[in-house]
Design brief:
3 helices, mainly alpha, 73% helix
């Protein structure tokens, strides 16, 4: 199954998750009655985003930050483990027996 199938199936899930998270934080807040004057691409984009409402925007921001932090700390942990394993391999190749490595050869 190609990876783009996952993203197509995940869109409704994340859309709903953003709205639920935003409603949990803000409560049931109605969308703003803001009219943006202008006809360029940025104004059309802002109008579309504001029509989704504050709960969706806040939920997407909170969920995005939560996922970013989870991926960041997971990658930091994995990179530290990889660096420690490479250091142990260097010590083993150099002939040090008790270099404090957890990995034994």
């Amino acid at each position: 199954m190609p990876p783009w199938y996952f993203f197509k199936l995940a869109v409704p899930f994340f859309f709903t998750l953003n709205i639920l998270t935003g409603n949990a934080i803000l409560g049931d807040v109605p969308g703003p009655d803001i009219t943006i004057a202008g006809d360029n691409m940025l104004c059309a984009y802002l109008s579309k985003m504001l029509s989704l409402g504050y709960p969706f925007l806040v939920g997407s921001l909170v969920n995005g930050i939560a996922v970013w932090l989870a991926v960041y700390f997971l990658l930091c942990f994995l990179l530290e483990k990889k660096a420690a394993a490479q250091e142990c391999i260097k010590c083993a190749r150099a002939g040090y027996k008790n270099s404090g490595c957890i990995i034994s050869f």
